[in-house]
Amino acid sequence: xxxxxxxxxxxxxxxxxxxNWYGKIKVQxxxxxxxxxxxxxxxxxxxxxxxxxxxxxLITPFFLVSEEIRECLELYEPLLGFKEIVxxxxxxxxxxxxxxxxxxxxxxxxEKCEYHRSRSHLLYTQIDLNKVGDKSxxxxxxxxxNYVVVRLDVAESxxxxxxxxxxLEEIDCR
Length: 174
Hints:
Elements: E1 3-8, E2 41-45, E3 57-58, E4 64-65, H1 67-76, E5 82-89, E6 94-101, E7 105-106, E8 114-115, E9 122-124, E10 126-127, H2 129-132, E11 137-140, E12 148-151, H3 152-160, E13 166-170, E14 172-173
Parallel strand pairs: 2-5, 7-11, 10-14
Antiparallel strand pairs: 1-12, 1-13, 3-4, 5-6, 8-9, 11-12
């Protein structure tokens, strides 16, 4: 099976840019063990943009998906939980509902991985498929950056539903 890192596509400059979220969401609470600490519904401000493009998947500052992509993910991972996040542009009176999924963390990086000096970013990624099991989408552990990993069939399914705004970087699997 083939897996990919999901990364933000810098060409989508009109995508929502979440601002002032510090203190409202703690990154460590996005993890499965702390997910219950997040409110069921949260309103977050976004940078004003009259020509906003509310794409179906946001990678930063955390992984958010539209209702349609949420339904797609539930087909592959029926036990996923979701928190509702409403993104609001007050200046242009625009709002869009997104969902923050409870992705599992999988410790599957091999010793062949190469990291940035601070070990915050991956330069070369290799995962051990035996440790991944049957997971179709998950976070990597062992690195400070929240990398979302997606299996090929799930990525294709999201793309067929019109998801854009992200790049897929193939991961070496052993």
